[in-house]
Amino acid sequence: MSDKKLNYDESVREIEEILSDIENGKMGVDELTEKVARVSALLKDCREKLTLTEKQVRDILSTEETEDSSN
Amino acid sequence: MNSPDSISLSSLLQEVRDSLKNQFPLSRWITAEIMDLQVNQRGHCYMELIEKGPGEGPVLARARATVWASRFGMLRAYFESSAGSPLKSGIKVLLRGSVEFHPQYGFSINVTDIDPAYTLGDLSRKKQEVIRRLNREGVMDMNRELPFPLVAQRIAVISSESAAGYGDFMDSILENPQGYALETRLFQAIMQGDEAPASIMKALDLIHRESHPFDAVVLIRGGGSKADLECYNDYDLAYYITQFPLPILTGIGHERDESVADLVAWKGLKTPTALAEYLLDLFLSFDFRLNAYLDRLRISVEQTVRQERIRLEGLATGMNHLSRSLIEARHTQLKHLGLSIRRESLARLSGQVEKNVAREERLHRSTTQLLAVKNEQLEMFTARNKGVHPQNVLRRGYSITSYQGKALKSVEDLPPGAQLQTILGDGILSSTLNFTHKKTEE
């Protein structure tokens, strides 16, 4: 869930940094896999965040917690 | 007792009335400020008009004014639609009226017409004055210069719950087809009239004190063209907006030119719906941007992999050449080595050969001697052994008898009639057993 705290601006900054490194040929093939995974994860998180606000996430989490505590 | 130069009040006032009627027969266009405005049950309007000294100075003049019901309805409608502002206390107006004087009710002005342009002009002047002042103070752009997030997802809404504009805004937000999620929270306020600026500022204050900050603030109102929107030209409200630490967007829903609040806001939209669409567009743009990143990623990765492959193939080809020439070099090396080894060994060997011939002769001699000695020994053994060889024993008259393939050493367990074989020195004989007799020990 800590990924959800990453805001759009920071995500975009990181994505652009990695993309420019790849495009400038500054990246070896080994590092490439790791960085591609990172960009994909960031893109996925950003897209998810568009349709699910932090409050909704918190509400879902808190209802789960109260269900757990009542068990 | 009647004094000759005294007059009754009513007479005096009647004289005043006649005098005034003579002096002011026609109606005149009069500029004044409305101080108080009341409309009674019958629809008659009673106002108090004043004139203040320059710069909101002391009241210089004051008079009552009336507008009869027959005219007031039309007048008000005309004024409000033209000026976009209601007829109310505090505005400056250009009225057409005639002087009236009634002995009983005193002086009043009977208003028959009004020129909204004057009020508009005055309001416009006031608005320009507010704008000038904000410019002088250098604050006009302060809210606009605040950074705006890529996507504004947490919104503070200042509106009135009952306002149609609020409903429109929330509908657009909640029912957006892409399912984008915005978190909104309503801060109620009065959105028109003289009480609006203070009410809105109070709401802004509450928002400012929130611990978990919002991304932006929106001012929403809509519906009803007759509403009094002069409040949005208020200096205090505008100044407050410029100083506010969050971007403020307005969707006030007026038909005319922008108010000062719109001018100082981060962005002013025409209607609450347009404002909702603006916010949702940010989501859409960002969504497209994410897609563009994905495309860039795919393309650049494909390119990188392709380049790597070419590089590796180049390396492999280079490797091939390299290893081939290395092997050849090694080959040549080994060949040379082989040749030199052979030369060396031959050289060594030829030296060795002579030595070896001598050694061989020596070896031959000693071996021959050894063999001769051994031969003698062997002959001696053989002669001795010949004596004890079984064949020689048999020749001397001894024989071996066997029964059922086994050589017999005892007469026991032999049944009469048994077939026996006997080996002699020069052959075998077969016989049948008659009887046996065992030797007894004495």
Could you give a short description of this structure?
Chain A has helices at 8-23, 29-51, 54-70. With 71 residues, chain A is mainly alpha-helical. The mean pLDDT of chain A is 79.
Please explain how this structure is put together.
The complex is a heterodimer of chains A (71) and B (442). Chain A has 71 residues and is mainly alpha-helical. Chain A is built from three helices and no strands. Helices cover 79% and strands 0% of the residues of chain A. By secondary structure, chain B is an alpha/beta fold. In chain B, the strands form three sheets. Chain B has a five-stranded mixed beta barrel. In chain B, helix 4 packs parallel to helix 8 and helix 5 runs parallel beside helix 6. Chain B is rod-shaped, with a radius of gyration of 67 Å. The mean pLDDT of chain B is 88. The chains are: A mainly alpha (71), B alpha/beta (442).
Task: Give short descriptive properties of this protein.
heterodimer; A: 71 residues; mainly alpha; 3 helices; 79% helix; elongated; B: 442 residues; alpha/beta; five-stranded mixed barrel; five-stranded parallel sheet; 14 strands; 21% strand; rod-shaped
How does the SSE layout of this entry go?
The complex is a heterodimer of chains A (71) and B (442).
Chain A: H1 8-23, H2 29-51, H3 54-70
Helix pairs in contact in A: 1-2
Chain B: H1 9-23, E1 28-39, E2 45-52, E3 59-67, H2 69-83, E4 92-102, E5 106-114, H3 116-136, E6 154-159, H4 164-174, E7 183-188, H5 196-208, E8 216-220, H6 235-243, E9 248-251, H7 260-264, E10 267-269, H8 272-388, H9 390-395, E11 400-403, E12 406-407, E13 419-424, E14 427-432
Parallel strand pairs in B: 3-5, 6-7, 6-8, 8-9, 9-10
Antiparallel strand pairs in B: 1-2, 1-4, 2-3, 4-5, 11-12, 11-13, 13-14
Helix pairs in contact in B: 2-3, 4-8, 5-6
